[in-house]
Amino acid sequence: MIAPSFVSGAPPGGRFRATARVRYHHPGAPCAVRAMKDRLEVAFDTPQRSVTPGQALVLYDGDEVLGGGWIECAGASRS
Fold this sequence. Notes:
Blueprint (H helix, E strand, L loop, with lengths): L1 E5 L8 E7 L7 E7 L4 E5 L11 E6 L2 E7 L9
Antiparallel strand pairs: 1-6, 2-3, 2-5, 3-4, 5-6
């Protein structure tokens, strides 16, 4: 992801758990997130279909939006 942004201004921590949505109608899927200097690495617990560069990825903690960013590349989605 490129230049993620967070509602609080900073990611919750170096590594954290969240639910990620990759499309408007995507129900969200649990994932592990690693926050680096200027990008995020997201590893879904189970493989997700149609994760495509250029789409937005939004991270949630329950109903609360944590933040997100634009998908730069999509690789294996296993953590």
